[in-house]
Amino acid sequence: MNTIELAPHRAAGLVAPAVDRAYRAGMLAGHDWGGAELSQRYGGPAATGLLVELRTRLAAPGGIVDEAGFAAVTRYLDPAVSRRTVDKQVAYGMIHRRPDGGLCATERGLAFLTELYQVHAEVTDELWAGQDERVARLVASLGRVLAYALVLADEEGDRGDSAFTAMAPPHEPYGTPPGVLLLNRLGALRYHRADAHAAAWTAAAHTASSVAALPPGPERLAIELETDRRAAGPYAVLTADERLTMLADLAALPG
């Protein structure tokens, strides 16, 4: 019997790099195995980059990322650069900017996102072949964690400048393959961690640029530990054994 107690804050810290590794593997494979070619057909990265980033919200019928949510998602970029990026994708006819500053996909943008979901289905099926049980467990566990994270956000009134609530829950149309569910739920969980990290470095009187330049040492460690504490809440929905299983499954995923 497993006797290791993995507390929620420890799970948050240990799961984060495993989530990053699995998510990046899936996205990189998607780019290399068809995503780059798809992007070029629609105008290249200048036309499609934001749609890839915002896909889990903008692919949904009527999906909108509001101005505050977009600022949170792009908090590490120069706002002027972000505005120019949006301007380009508006000019390419992929994104529509609403009068209130919110962003939504155009018909052409939605067509791209439909094809992108198909590419990710093929890619994840290949990348995680033979991992059906592990993928299914992760999809289920991540679904519970994300749902509870949204409940907590509502209880705390934390739906303003949050990247997580701007992007979650991910768009999951009926019949979405397990690999795509896993990829997009991993992405949503990364946004939750990003918000916790931003809250931690803000509390430590840092800015996005100053924390990025912070060298390894006691101050950075303190921010990471505070990030773990702030990111811990949703993991309480899982038992200690379930948290360990999630960590083991993530570590075992190919890629």
Q: Number of DSSP helices? A: 12
Poorly predicted segments: none
Structural category is mainly alpha
Q: Summarize the main sheet.
A: 2 strands, antiparallel
pLDDT averaged over residues: 94
Strand runs, count: 2
Shape summary: globular
What is the N-to-C order of secondary-structure elements (H for helix, E for strand)?
HHHHHEEHHHHHHH
Q: What strand order characterises the main sheet?
A: 1-2
What percentage of the residues does DSSP assign to strands (E)? Answer: under 5%
Percent helix, as a range, is 55-70%
Radius of gyration: 18 Å
For the record, give the distance between the C-alpha atoms at the N and C termini, rounded to a whole number.
29 Å
Description:
It is a single chain. With 255 residues, this protein is mostly helical. It has 12 helices and 2 strands, in the order αααααββααααααα. The two termini are 29 Å apart.
Short description:
The protein has helices at residues 8-41, 45-53, 55-58, 67-73, 79-91, 107-127, 132-155, 163-167, 178-203, 208-212, 218-231, 240-252; strands spanning 95-97, 103-105. It is mostly helical and 255 residues long. A two-stranded antiparallel sheet has the order 1-2.
